[in-house]
């Protein structure tokens, strides 16, 4: 298709979740959009709404969630307006296929998991794109308590990927 949608395998979509993601991409093909990621309990599978947050990162180049200031939610569209986000979680987003290819897809130098979301976020912003959280799109995600897979030779892939991110950008 013209638009690629990435969803982790441990997600549950809501009704009408896709349509709000597609509109900003149609308006500008260099827009990358993310739903609000709600929480599904890994123990009980209970579904709960998340606050409207956006992606950030710390000095160790680890992804974190930041609250959106109320002033940004008080515009003409209110709490339904798209929210600019510095970074994305990485496992739930949609973007134009050609733009994904122009950006170089995912960095093949990254190992297994960790940091790839920040790397592609930086690339989106530095290569003429924009990254938005779309409050009218909500997708549930099971947040595991621990990483369910190992690393080759016990390597710390998060550290490897964070160092690669720092060297590349």
Automatic annotation (TrEMBL):
Pfam families, alphabetically? Glycos_transf_2
Q: Which branch of life, at top level?
A: Eukaryota
What positions does the domain Glycosyltransferase 2-like occupy?
A: 1-100
Q: Which UniProt keywords apply?
A: Disulfide bond, Transferase
Entry GO MF terms: Notch binding; polypeptide N-acetylgalactosaminyltransferase activity
Xref: InterPro entries: Glyco_trans_2-like, Nucleotide-diphossugar_trans
BP GO annotations? protein O-linked glycosylation; regulation of Notch signaling pathway
Query: Is Disulfide bond found in the keyword set?
Result: yes
Gene Ontology annotations for the cellular component aspect, listed alphabetically: Golgi apparatus
Q: Which protein is depicted?
A: GLT11 acetylgalactosaminyltransferase
- Annotated organism of origin: Nothoprocta ornata
**What is the taxonomic lineage of the source species?**
Eukaryota, Metazoa, Chordata, Craniata, Vertebrata
């Amino acid at each position: 298709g013209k638009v690629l949608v990435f969803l982790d395998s441990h997600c549950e979509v809501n009704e009408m979740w896709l349509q709000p993601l597609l509109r900003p991409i149609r308006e500008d093909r260099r827009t990358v959009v993310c739903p609000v990621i709600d929480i599904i309990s890994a123990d009980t599978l209970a579904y709960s709404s998340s606050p409207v947050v956006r992606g950030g990162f710390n000095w160790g180049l680890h992804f974190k969630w930041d609250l959106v200031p109320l002033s940004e939610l008080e515009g003409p569209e209110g709490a339904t307006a798209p929210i600019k986000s510095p970074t994305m979680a990485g496992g739930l987003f949609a973007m134009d296929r050609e733009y994904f290819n122009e950006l170089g897809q995912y960095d093949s130098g990254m190992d297994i998991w960790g940091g790839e979301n920040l790397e592609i976020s930086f690339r989106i912003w530095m290569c003429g794109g924009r990254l938005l959280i779309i409050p009218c799109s909500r997708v549930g995600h099971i947040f595991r308590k621990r990483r369910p897979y190992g690393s080759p030779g016990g390597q710390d892939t998060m550290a490897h990927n964070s160092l690669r991110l720092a060297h590349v950008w």
